[in-house]
Backbone:
């Protein structure tokens, strides 16, 4: 059933499937003050830590709100008697620029609605799904005919507490499964990268932004306080992004839903505004939360947190929410079920966050409809895919769910591969610092932009040719070129190293400036090459400082470095080595063409994250071990 609390001038009308239930309610000064009081009580609850000490306060508030709207006519009791699940409860201001009275209604905590039997949100048979709508209702877009597509971006600027965004990503993948989800993760943390990120992901319907938020950010220059996401610039400096900055960045590739997984991203302002918001091109008025400001500016739907949400609660909510969306649940019912999952959590630190998620929608959104209805894949590789060459190593790379930290190095590496200043990146550092795991993560983040070949253990010319042939098997032009040059290379190897290097150099030049120069045909006909040289220290002579390349391998490595020229091709090199190296050729050090990213010890935060992840993984295996132990007597 679709129920609507319609705000019209100075009155409220409750509708059930478009038909009024009872008379209009006056939206006079007394009603406005009462509604603002409900919002203030909710805000006070959210500001009390730990919140679970007074769970009855929320239930009392929900019942008071129910009693106020129910009135002597019993409007909500009549609605509940007639309702069929799911009950979509829309608080609707048809104005594009809500006035202060509208905001009083919109910001009331409707998620808490409760009667004598408890919270409506806790009634699985009712499936109460509250949401807020701004502006006139329009014609909804057709659902996406692919499987659920999700673009995920995180930000952690200098000075901000580090969030467990890796666990959030891993929980989404575990809940949904990589076979039911197209997930593309952007490590840039920059607003200007959003549209490019969405384009490269195939314009998925959902964008998930995991970062810190602020509902009243002030910056130098005299601007009024405004709600923002705390994003970052290329150097990890804080770069607050308000609704205007975000909508400008999103407009070239507008998603259908943005999940602002940031504290206070859907929170009501501290004090009600006395003036309507400015025109769409101006900064949002104080009455707007960041989520509502985005919807008011043209975004179809925004989901955010009306309070300071805990990491574990945000992760649990996201996992349940995206699992529901991937199963083709409607948008609002998916939010409702994720909210109910938090309400039923045995962990009080998760449970106390249950009412905070708020959904705002605009004209072109049908909140009852799913965002995706198909099974078509945007990418044939799962989001947790790890190149198989990394998996056979004596020291295995970190599983997708166990990867923590290294975001600064990851962001710089990806930016370098995307740019044109270097032929590639070399990751250096002592053993067991995660060089190969980071390389695998870099490959994972760019698996849809490159054909990936990995050299590990064996670094001969024919080994290189074999790995290239495997990586480029699906690209006809590159495959044919490699096949046609194999015999000449074999003949050259028999005649001597120098001639073989010349033949190999010509092959690589033709390959990298030909079929692997750049993506073509929407990435299906041709992709640039990402060649990974893993554990390159095997080819280096001992030396203090940067190590020289051993004579037996210098020719091959020089040929590779000369072939990968960023001004001529989008193909790149990715190298891991315990030590930096030097390779002089014609008076130049060819190693200078690679950006060195030295890896140090893990930060205390990353170490704590990994320890927690390992404990949780071990705990998840204990029931299985116990079951096996119980069977031992039968086997004796």
Residues:
């Amino acid at each position: 059933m679709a129920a609507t609390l319609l705000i019209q001038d100075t009155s409220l009308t409750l509708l059930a499937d478009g038909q009024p239930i009872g008379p209009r309610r006056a939206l006079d000064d007394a009603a406005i003050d009462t509604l603002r009081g409900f919002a203030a009580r909710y805000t006070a609850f959210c500001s009390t830590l730990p919140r679970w000490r007074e769970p009855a306060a929320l239930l009392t508030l929900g019942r008071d709100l129910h009693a106020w709207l129910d009135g002597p006519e019993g409007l909500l009791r009549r609605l509940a008697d007639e309702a069929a699940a799911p009950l979509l409860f829309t608080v609707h201001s048809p104005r594009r620029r809500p006035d202060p009275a509208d905001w009083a209604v919109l910001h009331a905590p409707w998620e808490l609605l409760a009667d004598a039997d408890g919270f409506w949100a806790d009634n699985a048979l009712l499936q109460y799904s509250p949401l807020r709508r701004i502006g006139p209702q329009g014609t909804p877009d057709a659902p996406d005919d692919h499987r659920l597509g999700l673009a995920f971006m995180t930000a952690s600027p200098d000075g901000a507490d580090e969030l467990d965004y890796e666990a959030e990503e891993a929980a989404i993948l575990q809940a949904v499964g990589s076979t039911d989800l197209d997930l593309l993760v952007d490590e840039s943390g920059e607003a200007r990268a959003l549209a490019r990120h969405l384009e490269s992901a195939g314009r998925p319907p959902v964008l998930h932004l995991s970062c810190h938020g602020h509902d009243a950010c002030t910056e130098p220059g005299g601007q009024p306080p405004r709600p923002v996401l705390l994003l970052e610039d290329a150097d990890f400096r804080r770069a607050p992004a308000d609704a205007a900055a975000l909508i400008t960045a999103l407009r070239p590739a507008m998603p259908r839903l943005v999940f602002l997984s940031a504290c206070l991203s859907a929170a009501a302002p501290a004090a009600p505004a006395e003036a309507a918001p400015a025109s769409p091109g101006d900064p949002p008025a104080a009455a707007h939360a960041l989520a509502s400001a985005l919807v008011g500016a043209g975004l179809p739907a925004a989901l955010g947190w009306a309070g300071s949400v805990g990491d574990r609660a945000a992760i649990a909510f996201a996992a349940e929410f995206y699992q529901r969306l991937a199963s083709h649940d409607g948008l609002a019912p998916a939010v409702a079920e994720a909210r109910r999952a938090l309400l039923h959590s045995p962990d009080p630190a998760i449970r106390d966050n249950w009412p905070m998620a708020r959904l705002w929608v605009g004209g072109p959104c049908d909140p009852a409809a799913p965002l995706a209805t198909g099974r078509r894949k945007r990418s044939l590789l799962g989001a947790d895919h790890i190149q198989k060459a990394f998996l056979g190593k004596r020291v295995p790379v970190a599983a997708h769910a166990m990867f923590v930290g290294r975001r600064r190095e990851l962001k710089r590496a990806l930016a370098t591969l995307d740019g044109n200043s270097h032929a590639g990146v070399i990751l250096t550092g002592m053993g067991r610092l995660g060089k190969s795991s980071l390389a695998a993560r870099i490959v994972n983040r760019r698996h849809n932009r490159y054909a990936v070949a990995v050299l590990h253990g064996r670094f001969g010319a024919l080994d290189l040719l074999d790995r290239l042939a495997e990586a480029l098997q699906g690209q006809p032009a590159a495959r044919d070129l490699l096949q046609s040059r194999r015999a000449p290379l074999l003949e050259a190897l028999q005649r001597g190293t120098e001639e073989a290097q010349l033949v190999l150099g010509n092959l690589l030049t033709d390959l990298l400036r030909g079929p692997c120069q750049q993506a073509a045909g929407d990435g299906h006909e041709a992709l640039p090459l990402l060649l990974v040289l893993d554990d390159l220290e095997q080819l280096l002579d001992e030396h203090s400082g940067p190590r020289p390349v051993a004579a037996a391998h210098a020719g091959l490595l020089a040929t590779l470095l000369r072939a990968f020229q960023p001004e001529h091709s989008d193909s790149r090199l990715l190298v891991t080595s315990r030590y930096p190296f030097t390779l002089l050729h014609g008076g130049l050090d060819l190693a200078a063409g690679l950006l060195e990213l030295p890896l140090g010890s893990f930060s205390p935060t990353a170490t704590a994250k990994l320890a927690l992840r390992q404990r949780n993984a071990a705990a998840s295996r204990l029931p299985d071990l116990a079951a096996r132990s119980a069977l031992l007597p039968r086997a004796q």
Remarks:
- The longest helix spans residues 604-635.
- The CA atoms of residues 113 and 119 lie 6 Å apart.
- The two ends are 60 Å apart (CA to CA).
- The longest strand covers residues 2-8.
